[in-house]
Amino acid sequence: MKWKSKIKVNTGLMMMCTLLSVPGGLQAQKLPSEVMTILQSEASFQRFYATRTEFQQAKQRELVSVPFYNQELAKEVHDFHLHISDMHFRHVQCKLCRDHVKNLRRLSQKIENAMK
């Protein structure tokens, strides 16, 4: 059943291409509403598949970046532990601690989003 509808769509598109290639072929006539509907739905499908392909490629790039994010996260944890190793927990307001925690959250969020 699907191949019949594709034949109809392709036949309609071929008819439109033929009309467009003839000089003055469409100037005196308007496009039938069925042909316009077919062309609009075909364009809609093309946009949908292009968007889906872009999303899949972005997802794949994120998955490739996960080892890099893990390495950055391990380095950030190490730096944070070095920073707080000298009884630093007694200090309440430390900008470096807040920056480390912010980076840890950011990196863990990137890894979590990439693995979804």
Task: Give the SSE layout.
Layout: H1 2-21, H2 33-84, H3 95-115
Largest sheet: none
Ends distance: 36 Å
| Alpha-beta classification | mainly alpha
Overall average pLDDT: 78
Q: How big a fraction of the residues is strand? A: under 5%
Give the overall silhouette: rod-shaped
The tally of helices reads: 3
> Helicity range of the residues?
over 70%
Based on DSSP secondary structure assignment, what is the total number of beta strands?
A: 0
- Uncertain residue segments: none
Give the ordered list of helices and strands. Answer: HHH
- Rg measurement, Å: 29 Å
Task: Give a description of the structure.
This protein has three helices and no strands. It is an all-alpha fold and 116 residues long. It starts with a helix and ends with a helix.
Key features of this structure:
80% helix; 116 residues; 0% strand; rod-shaped; 3 helices; mainly alpha
Question: Can you describe this structure in just a few lines?
Answer:
This protein is mostly helical and 116 residues long. It is built from 3 helices and no strands.
